[in-house]
Amino acid sequence: MQIRNNNRSYLKEYRKDLRDNTTVPEKILWKYLKNSQLEGRKFRRQHSFKNFILDFYCAEEKLAVELDGEHHFTVVGFEHDKQRDDLLLKYGIRTVRIENEHVFKNTEGVLDLIKSYFQNK
């Protein structure tokens, strides 16, 4: 299934607001993902696909990186994430979910985990 640019215009302001109010874990991880620093892969921040906004997205790898905070660890949050991940997978987009705390405690491990999802070596 072909994936076109899905940065929908009606989400533009919301994406900008998310970028302007980046969480601390997102700031830390972005420092390592921006400018194609992670094995030459280009990542985008707050990239929308359908009605979802992905924390980080690498088109070359069809890989979404999601940083999860407390609200993801509820029954409702878990179910929402599963539905979202299942829909993305229908379009060939794999999702790696990383707990915010891991970014603080083991940034190198987080980067290694993301790299382990790379298929285009």
Can you walk through the features of this model?
- This protein has 121 residues and is of the alpha+beta class.
- Helix content is 42%, strand content 21%.
- The chain has five helices and four strands.
- The chain has helices at 12-20, 24-33, 75-90, 100-105, 107-116; strands at residues 44-49, 52-58, 63-68, 94-99.
- The protein has a four-stranded mixed beta sheet, with helices on both faces.
- Strand 3, helix 3 and strand 4 form a beta-alpha-beta unit.
- The chain is globular, with a radius of gyration of 14 Å.
- The protein starts with 11 loop residues before the first helix and ends in a 5-residue tail after the last helix.
| Sheet with most strands: strand arrangement | 1-2-3-4
| Main beta-sheet strand count, sense and barrel state | 4 strands, mixed
Helix and strand element order: HHEEEHEHH
Beta-strand level of the residues, as a percent range?
A: 15-25%
Total strands: the figure is 4
Shape, please? globular
Structural class: alpha+beta
Treating each run of at least 4 consecutive H or I residues as one helix, how many helices? 5
Share of helix, binned: 40-55%
Mean residue pLDDT: 84
Q: In angstroms, what is the radius of gyration?
A: 14 Å
Which blocks of ≥5 consecutive residues have pLDDT under 50?
Answer: none
Span between N and C termini?
22 Å
